[in-house]
């Protein structure tokens, strides 16, 4: 019995010794393998905080405004000197639409960048699909934010503004980097005039306007030009003699003004939602995202616009597909649930 116990202990010790040497050899090999790897410099792009964010999946909703959903990454473009994407430009154009309708100045129509891109890539014979539902022919002045992307792939690096004046039967192009968007502007203007005038005519003027002194403010120039030209058009019923000299001064303040506008609208939206909180049994700190989630859990599928289905297939500049659950949709669901006295 003792002899058997001795043999077991002996073999157990041998097992531990062999295992130890295996682990030692493995560690030595592992370390030597790493020692042959190149050492990345401190400024390597592989070590960039942008390439490896603390939480790459966190991109919270900041504001849901009609058809536009602004996320943290969109708003961040306004907090630094960066290009504006189609979400920011589309949001502001929708804001202008709402403001002018509220003031009973419905002769102005601001087209979103995703629709403008579609129109540029489509034949004018298809324009009725996009413009008839919004009764575009009833408006006197129509604003198109224009991107220089001329393919079916996502891209583009410059924004300019094309304005169609029904009163003057003319397209006016305003470009803060003169010449860059000329080809795209003429292409769209030719199709737009054919749709509105029902005949092929050259109705296009390249307007003199202030020029940007950097590579990233083109989007801001489009928004400020839209502000100035729309006011002038309402007052004078024409675009041709609009004085845009104040635009550079407006551009210098536009980022901070847009940030204030976004957070003011967010505060107003949250306050409106709080009115319904009691009836809907929502928490006091409920926001648009949580309400959208709760509503979507009661509804099989939220409505999607066919225009947003495959943005990459129509050459949209940046993530237009984010515009899915709008404030309008959320409010409609809230109203339905409130009226039927259903509790989420």
Automatic annotation (TrEMBL):
Q: Sorted alphabetically, which InterPro entries does this protein's record hold?
A: Nep1/2-like (IPR044613), Papain-like_cys_pep_sf (IPR038765), Peptidase_C48_C (IPR003653)
Q: One GO molecular function term? A: cysteine-type peptidase activity
Q: Which domain of life is it from?
A: Eukaryota
Q: Which UniProt keywords apply?
A: Hydrolase, Protease, Thiol protease
- State the PROSITE patterns in the record: ULP_PROTEASE
Please give the Pfam families that the UniProt record associates with this protein.
Peptidase_C48
Keyword match Lipid biosynthesis: no
Domain named Ubiquitin-like protease family profile: residues: 68-229
Gene Ontology biological process:
protein deneddylation; proteolysis
Which family does the record assign?
Belongs to the peptidase C48 family.
Q: Would you tell me the protein name for this molecule? A: Sentrin-specific protease 8
